[in-house]
Amino acid sequence: MLTGCAEAAEPQGERVEVTTLAMNAGGWAPGTFAAVSESPIHLGAFASWYGGGADGEDFAEVTDKAPPGSAYLAVTDNTGCRTPEDVQVSRNGDDLVVRFVGGADHDTCVRAVGPGAYLAVPAAAVEDVRTVNGKRLLDPAGPGTLVDNVALDAGRMDQVAPAEFGTEAATTLRDKVIAARPNNAEAVTTALGKPVPDGKRMFAFVVSGCIVEDAVLVLGPDDITAETIEPEVPVDCDAPAYFLTTFVVDTADVPKGITLAD
Q1: How many helices (H) and strands (E) does the chain have?
Q2: How far is 165 from 54, CA to CA, in rounded Å?
Q3: Which tens digits make up the pLDDT trace of 4-49?
Q4: Domain segments of the chain: what residues?
Q5: Which helix (H) or strand (E) holds 190?
Q6: In degrees, to the nearest 5, what angle opens at C-alpha 86 toward C-alphas 80 and 87?
């Protein structure tokens, strides 16, 4: 059993007005993880920093009500045995002080509570911010870095299982993609032939979407997946576009026990 944790003291600094877009009051983040972005944050990719990217998001449903001129803040903390009800943000120099407030502080609990919040904040209020609760800002795209996003020729394509570089499955993926898209053989071979840097792991996926602007790697807690990022305004299309998408990630950032989703 864990013992309770009292609410933090009132922070010093200037209060920052926030709009809550999503909150996971009963989450399981192990501490402070935070990212700031000028554009919307993919919460599954952000939660991958602590293995919380299950099914794309580790938060409640996102409400798109960011005021004009907003930046975006995704942040977690650890509140012991207290499930908070709200979040407050202040700025102290180049540090944002985030407090998860409210809720009962229970004497004991089975697991620590690691709440998360996704907030819209005035862009000017987070300009030149370097840390949150004293911890460095993380990449809002998560620990995975997009290496290649090869556009494949149009046409129907059977499902191709994802693969880790350096495995037999990667060879199978390459052969299937080339067989389906022979005109893209050179680009596919080049993308999948890159060496894996020391201390890293690389993964390849065939993803599809109407208009794919970007893709992110989502880690855990059970599966490794890739998700596409499409325009915020839905676009009609007659057929999906396909891409060979590859990522590199530090080995230490891949939670133990998770595997590539089928």
Answers
A1: 3, 18
A2: 23
A3: 554 554 556 799 999 999 999 998 899 999 999 999 999 999 999 9
A4: 2-136, 145-260
A5: helix 185-192
A6: 85
